[in-house]
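Hi team,

Below is the intake form for TetR family transcriptional regulator from Amycolatopsis deserti. Please confirm the fields before the structure is written into the shared record.

FORM ID: S-0412
PROTEIN: TetR family transcriptional regulator
ORGANISM: Amycolatopsis deserti
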Amino acid sequence: METEKPLTPAAERILAVAGKLFYDNGIHAVGVDTIAAEAGVTKKTLYDRFGSKAELVALYLSRRDERWREWVRGYADPRSTPQRRLLRVFDALADWMRVENTRGCAFVNAHAELPGADHPALQPIAASKEWLLDYLRQLAADAGARNPARLAEALLILIEGATVVASLDVVPTAVAAAKRVAKLLIEEAAGG
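The structure came back. Fields below:
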């Protein structure tokens, strides 16, 4: 996948259309004919730029991951306490779910659909989850957690679980509930 050079306006349009269709309908339910027609391009243009539907899916998820990372970092006010920055990840998630994640986690949804261990979209899926775990670990270390890795793992599990149950409308306040549990875990991890 050629990501070094900027995408043409037509390729950006294809990517935007494909991303919306993949998220709203599922990857397997959306064919390249539909993507090309909705984007107002030919299938040849789509294949010339992306090579395959699999590569298009991978780039869609990579771009979504970039937006997610930027979103989360935007909530980490450097003037607040390290503990507060950890909790702000839950605020970022709550707002993200209202704006970008109305049908659950795009990465988990895509992972459930992708065949085999060699699909190119598996890399951005793993990278997104690994980034969040690393980010939480760093914030936990900054907050003085005795075991930052363990706290980060627990917080990631809370985030992922809250995302699932909130998106299914099982517990509409799941992110707020997860944040309350996270606060207790953070206090405990810091020895308070």
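SUMMARY LINE: The domain at 57-189 is CATH 1.10.357.10 (Tetracycline Repressor; domain 2).

Thanks, M.
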